[in-house]
Amino acid sequence: LVRSSALKSFKAEYEVVSILVATLRGFLSAAALRAMAEGGVAPAPAASIAAAGGQPVPAGPRTLVETGTIVPSKQERTKFKETSEKARMLARTITFTKPFGAAPEVVCGFDHIECASDVMGIRAAADKVTEAGCRVMLIVRGDTRLDALRVTWTAIGESA
């Protein structure tokens, strides 16, 4: 019974994805899909080129997304196993693989946390964000003792 319902759910999701792909193929040419898959700029449709007097129409800015994960080493986690009234911080400098056109928005979150006590305060944040990179910080305060954690970050912005 469980397998049957799981299979039905999978088939329904597959049908939705198939419809979306067919719809995209109807709107975009094979060259446009290939260019987008390769991270390039999709060529302008022939109708819009003709409407612009034979000149290609600029496609406009493209969105660039980059993600990463930070897993502090055992040595780096040592300071998070001790309690302190002062905040303890771990900072990592991130260099984007491809520069953005302008400073992107960077969002940080926790993918995994193992705590040895009550959590008094834990925060992941990005600062010093530029087109080329940023700094991701993990800040812990009070009686928060962490045994393991993984921080993920996502940068979203205009491509250069």
UniProtKB/TrEMBL annotation:
The lineage of its organism: Eukaryota, Metamonada, Carpediemonas-like organisms, Kipferlia. It holds the Pfam family H_lectin. One of its GO terms (molecular function) is carbohydrate binding. One of its GO terms (biological process) is cell adhesion. InterPro entries: H-type_lectin_dom_sf, H-type_lectin_domain. This is H-type lectin domain-containing protein. Residues 92-156 form the H-type lectin domain.
